[in-house]
């Protein structure tokens, strides 16, 4: 059990092909670990925004909301999983939704491992060292994207080209979902305003 919580995630980010193969065919990977990794990413991101050194932190704390920051992490991850599952179902993908969730969650571990020390180190940085802060964060993002690519390819048993194509389609579907959601909430808001105006008009006339 301890291996599933500590050793296996660390093994996966260094040997992603072996790690995701184990998730797909050996039953490795746990939803508890996936949930923990996502929670740690949320906390790491909030800490970065709230406690980063003044040279790298431009957050206006007067308007900052940690709940919104959590949603900025959770919503894209949820959209990615749903969109990827929707697309791969139509494109003969072999991955189940649970496997997609685990593959996505395990891929964010480099972000956690780099965000935390860089946030702490940012308080001791001088201006000339800020570039290393952004470099390390960029490395974390690229590492995460690479793991997500390998995870998608392995879980769905795709070729390299089909994996790239599927991931691009997944991003497009995410954009469509966001657009439809915004359109829906706008229509609901307009309907509420319309009913409210009707009520006010009724009250005024009576």
Explain this structure to me?
- The chain has 206 residues and is mostly helical.
- Helices cover 81% and strands 0% of the residues.
- It has helices at 2-14, 16-25, 31-51, 66-90, 97-107, 109-121, 130-156, 160-205.
- It starts with a helix and ends with a helix.
- The model has no long low-confidence stretch (mean pLDDT 91).
Topology:
Elements: H1 2-14, H2 16-25, H3 31-51, H4 66-90, H5 97-107, H6 109-121, H7 130-156, H8 160-205
Task: Provide key terms for this protein.
mainly alpha, 8 helices, 206 residues
Query: Number of helical segments?
Result: 8
- CA(first)-CA(last) distance: 70 Å
SS strand fraction: under 5%
| Overall pLDDT level | 91
Q: What share of residues is helical?
A: over 70%
Low-confidence stretches: none
The main β sheet shows up as: none
Q: Outline, from the CA principal axes?
A: flat
The count of DSSP E runs of length 2 or more, i.e. the number of strands, is 0
How would you classify the helix and strand content by structural class? mainly alpha
Rg (CA only): 21 Å
How do the SSEs run, as a string of H and E?
A: HHHHHHHH
Short description:
The chain is an all-alpha fold and 206 residues long. The protein is built from eight helices and no strands.
